[in-house]
Amino acid sequence: MTVFVLWIIAFVLIAYFAHKRWDSGLSRGLDKMLPSVLKTHGDNRYLWIVALAILGATTLVRPVDILLVLVLLAIIGLIVMKLANWASSKATH
Fold this sequence. Notes:
Elements: H1 2-33, H2 45-61, H3 63-92
Helix pairs in contact: 1-2, 2-3
């Protein structure tokens, strides 16, 4: 229960400060980091604020879980890239 309360507090604070700073640079900072398909251009404010708040709160409360998820995503990404390269080499023959 304590972890849940801490997560809610972190979520609310991150969402509040992200909403407060959205026009003064947060959306521009996101646009610099994201590929063109995902750029915000100032739109979808609430979607991005909720996503950032969820990631931030989870990282603060359960950092090991985030690291494990990142490692698993990296492994899955490598496997998908290897399979795509293998499939493309088979398709060209």
